[in-house]
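Note to self: keep these together.
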Amino acid sequence: MKNPVQPLSQRLFDTTHTQVGNRIKVLGFAGSLRKNSYNKLLLRAASRLLPESAQLELFDIRGIPLYDQDVQEHGIPEIVQRFKEKIESADAILITTPEYNHSYSGVLKNAIDWASRPYGHNSFNGKPVAVMSAAPGIFGGVAAQDQLKQVLLALNMHIVAQPAVIVASADRKFDVNGELTDVDAKQFMRRLLANLVDFTIRLTRLDEPLRVFPIST
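Structure:
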């Protein structure tokens, strides 16, 4: 019986990454403002399920103002500038989204709009990205994910889509300490995060890096 193929993320951590002390930087943010929202808790769970070759930094989009081009032309707000810098310095992006009225949240769209501007300075351009969702309903945010991924494609991001992480009935999937209790969801998360890290490593190891042109929507 052949030995199972070890994921690239683990093989590289065992060799190159341990030698140079380098890890894949994943930036995660949730499309919720509530302190203990299910999607913030989902990000917290993800931080424990990443491959050892990666690290997750979280950014809270609370405080990002409504997008206003008049404001932008007078200077990008400091929190938006920090958000853009965090995105640009990350190797990959992880987004968790709730579902409101069959779509993702307005605060998430607003944050994405800011980070993709001004024209020609789309901070998301060329970044690998994975999306997860948690919602109290029985569909777990699948419609929100589908619509969000259309926007991410328009921003020229590389979507790592499988396996889908959709936590339905989220009000019953976290304990009193905010820990995710759904074993199946954890398994899917672990696989999705490994795929995101593996894909990111493959991009960074190309002999000829992908040509990424500045775009904006």
